[in-house]
Structures are given as C-alpha cells and as structure tokens.
Amino acid sequence: MRNWSRFLIGATLSVLLALGLTRFVGNEYFFFATYVVLQFIVLATAWNILGGYGGYVNFGASAFFAVGAYCAVALTQSYALALPLQILAAALVTGLLGFAVGALTLRLRGIYFSIATVAVAVICETVIMNWSFVGGARGTTVLQPAAPAFFSSYTRLLFFVMALLALLAVAFARFVETSWIGRGLRAIRDNEEAAESVGVPTLKLKLFAATASGALMGAAGAPFALYMNFIEPTSAFSLNYSVSALAMPLIGGSANWLGPVIGAILLAGTQQIVTVTISSELNVLIVGLLLVVFVVAAPHGILGLWHKLVARGGQRP
Q: pLDDT tens digits for 266-313?
C-alpha cells in the first residue's frame, strides 16, 4: 500500500509537471520530440505485458499501432469524434484484435507464435492499403482542429494526452506485475506446463495479456495521424515500431514495470537526438546496435545490471 501511495503521488506530480511544461516551455519542437518518447513508453509497456511477463515475443506491434491510428482516422472522417473518444474506440478495436489474434495463435509457442504475429502485421497492412475510405496506399491528410483555450497549440495538447496515456499504461503494468495476474504470467514464462499442472489458468491469462497489450498499443497509435497531419500505410506499419517495442523492454529490463520506461527514454531519446543532428535513417540501426550490446553485455537489461551491481556491493566486507 505504501508503494502504491508513492506511485500515485509521483503520477500526480508527473501530470502537473506535464501540464506546466505546456504553459512555460516556449520551444515547440520539445513537445514534438517528447511526444514520440512518451508514445514509445506506452508501446514498450504494452509489449512487456505479453512479451516480458508472459514470455510470448510479439513482432506485430506495428499492426496494433497502425490499426489504432486508422481506426481514429475512420471515426474522424465518419463522425468527427473528439480525440478522447477516438483513443477509447481505437483501444477497444485493437483490444478485440489482440483477443482474436491471441485465441488463434497463443497455443503456438516460441518462434511459431512470433512468426504468426508478423503475418498479422502483413495482413492488416494489406487490408489498409486496399481500403480507399482511409486513403489506401496513397495515404490521407488529417487536419488538426483548433487547440483548446488552455493549450497554445494542438501539438502541446497531444503531448499532454500522450503523457496521460503513458502514466495510465505504466500504472496498469505495475498493477498487473504486483497482482496474481503477473505471478501467473511469470509462471507461464518460466514453465507453462508446470504452471498448468498447479492450476494456473494459462489460456485465460494469455488472452488477457494479449487483449490488454493490443488495447494499449492501439491507444498509443490513435493520435498518430493528428500528430503527423498525414497518414499512409508505410509509415504507420513501420518496422521501427515493432523492433523498438521489443528492444526497449529488453534494454531497460523486461522483468519490471520500470524497465520499458527506462528503455524507451534511452532509446527514443537517442533516436530523436540523432534524427535532428545526423539522419532519421539511422534510427533502426541504432536500435539494432543497442539491442546487440545489451543482449551480450546485460541480458537482463539496465535494471538487471543495476541489481547485480547492488548485490555485489552488498557482499563486500
């Protein structure tokens, strides 16, 4: 209870900080770049619920992200829904997609499940490319509406909304980790047969994780078109989303809710700096290099390395 109280206090202060930044920071690019970092915190946290806790490696994060984005575009063009309703609808659709994909593929294990998630991404991209209502392969322009009075630009509003989504995603992941759900998922990751033998409802827990993971990824993707003012399948289904969503928890540490946050800040922050100073084409290369370095040097991520160093320090006379 004390830990949760500290977490809630920290979350409240974070919301107030994000709100204050929108009022007092004058550089517009700060919000444009920080939005991306927050977006990847949501994506990495969502991936970790199924991939980190449950041990089912999902290579199809870009599918859920893009479906969430295109769901928001379709609703905007049809009903002109407000952004919060777009996010809720995208989360619902991608949550159902996650449940459906889970029901069909979670009986597969290891590389077979991972290949199936890649196939899902290819199928979803093919459908979107042939759906003329949302622009098809050529894409479509999405104009930002006027910003509410409190925010001087719509980019600042999107930054604040993504900050709230990041806090909600992290809070949900922390709840899952500390509850019986998290214990059950970790048992599945360690030895699924043994977990089944002692009564762990493995299929139900995996379906829950797939649904929750998909919903959070879709919510992260919902504001994408408004953020870019344009959307087309190649960018929405970019390999960068799938690779980064996997790499960030592994770099930060997938055994803890804080690991994806650390990995996302480190990796997405580095990508934004490189994009401005060198070239945006190096993003995937940076992810790959950092992933190789951490897999070799720190297989349990930054948090695992930290705990190891602390344990060693405590053993010294």
A: 888 888 887 777 766 666 677 777 778 877 777 778 888 887 777 776
Residues forming beta bridges with residue 140, ordered by sequence position: 231
Instruction: Evaluate the CA torsion angle 302, 307, 308, 309 in order and state its sign.
Output: positive
How far, CA to CA in Å, does 243 sit from each of 9, 84, 155, 251, 280? 33, 27, 26, 12, 15
DSSP secondary structure letter of residue 234? H
Q: Judge whether 33 and 156 are in contact, CB under 8 Å.
A: no
Cα separation of 313 and 228, whole Å?
A: 47
Q: Which of 42, 82, 81, 27 is CA-nearest to residue 214?
A: 42
- Is the pLDDT at 181 greater than 90? The verdict is yes
Is-contact 95 214, C-beta < 8 A? yes
Question: Going by C-beta distance under 8 Å and a sequence separation of 6 or more, which residues neighbour residue 231?
Answer: 69, 70, 73, 134, 135, 139, 140, 142, 224, 225
- Residue 141 pairs in a beta bridge with 230
CA angle 284, 46, 303 (to 5 degrees): 75
Helix (H) or strand (E) holding 276: helix 258-277
pLDDT tens, position by position, 115-137: 999 999 999 999 999 998 998 88
The pTM of this model reads 0.93
Tens of pLDDT, residues 250-263: 888 888 899 999 99
51 neighbors 186 (Cβ within 8 angstroms): no
Asked which of 23-37, 188-202, 284-298 is least confident by mean pLDDT, the reply is: 284-298
